[in-house]
Amino acid sequence: MMEKILARSEFSGRAVALIHQIKSAGRDGNQMPAQIGAILSSLGYAKTTDGKHTKYTPSDEMFGLNVEMVPKTPSDGMRGGKNKATDLIKSFGLQKLK
User: Fold this and answer.
1) Residue 12: pLDDT above 80?
2) Residues 1 and 63 sit within 8 Å (Cβ to Cβ)
3) CATH of the domain at 43
4) Can you give the pTM of this predicted structure?
5) Between vectors from CA 96 to CA 13 and to CA 23, what angle results, nearest 5°?
């Protein structure tokens, strides 16, 4: 669905900038929860706490997007942040815009 929307809209460069923001946030496993959370909140996701994770729910206007779960604590390794960033990019349908 996102591909159809993007195909019909003019290229603004915002999607590529968002990809870079997400990748940058995922590079530091210690800061990843806060940085990814800030990106999701700025996009209009509502934040709630659910056990050891923070749940980000898209607004009703953002139908078709997934609920995103972000750990409250930083990842022990570097892969956790990078994996979450990759998952987020795929969830938004941005992986083909690289």
Assistant:
1) no
2) no
3) 3.30.920.30
4) 0.80
5) 70
Q: Which residues pair with 53 in a beta bridge?
A: 50, 71
Locus of tokens 């590529």: 16
Q: What angle do CA 5, 7, 9 make, to 5 degrees?
A: 70
Domain housing 83: 2-97
Count of other CB atoms within 10 angstroms of residue 71: 16
Q: What confidence tens digit (pLDDT) does each residue in 29-66 have?
A: 788 899 999 999 999 999 999 788 999 999 888 888 99
C-alpha–C-alpha distance, residues 7 and 41, integer Å: 25
Which amino acid appears at position 74 of this protein? P
Residue 98 scores a pLDDT above 80? no
Give the CA distances from residue 6 to residues 12, 40, 85, 94, in Å, rounded to whole numbers and listed in that order: 10, 19, 20, 10
Q: At which residue do the structure tokens 């590079």 appear?
A: 27
Indicate the number of domains in the chain: 1
